Amino acid sequence: LISALSIFNYSYYYCYKYSPLSCMTCINAQHDTTQLDKFRVRARLTVPKCQMEPIICDRDQDVCVTITMHIGVDHYWIGSGCDKHENFQHIACENVHTLTRNVQIGIVQERRALQRVCVCTTNLCNHIAINQSSILLIFICALIFFVYYNSAS
Q1: Where do transmembrane segments lie in this chain (predicted)?
Q2: Chain segment 30-84, per-residue pLDDT in tens
Q3: Residue that wins the pLDDT comparison between 71 and 119
Q4: What are phi and psi of 44, to 5 degrees?
């Protein structure tokens, strides 16, 4: 029995360790989605979120990434999916200052932008979730309701 358990334990560890990572990526939308190597970019979004779906990474991709950028009045850009850790200097969410460049015939436009870059290493870890302040607000409202309901009884 002990050897059967250790074989199961080893095979579970081996399969988990060597199975490809799964990340979340924005659902493909016609006319505003670009995909490159299991990483999708959605442009022209009116809010900084998108519907997401899981995607299986290539074996050399070891992190999940979500990058959000405000690109103008009511316009956002989101890139999400699989990538390599070597392309990032952090594991977590950070604000990164960047320079964007728009090149058209005879015109080059440059502007500085702030990107929110979130990098993580576990399966499906890069979903766009409710932010911490929303969770706190929901908790406070529930607590007030609970106190009010119990004091009325």
Answers
A1: 128-149
A2: 888 998 899 999 998 999 999 999 999 999 999 999 999 998 888 999 999 999 9
A3: 119
A4: 60, 35
**Mean of pLDDT over the chain:** 82
Tokens of 114: 């702030």
Q: Which tokens is 131 given?
A: 């932010």
Can you tell me the distance from the alpha carbon of 117 to that of 97, in angstroms, rounded to the nearest whole number?
Answer: 10
If you average pLDDT over residues 2-16, what whole number do you get? 47
Instruction: Provide the whole-model pTM.
Output: 0.68
With tokens 């809010």, the residue in question is 47
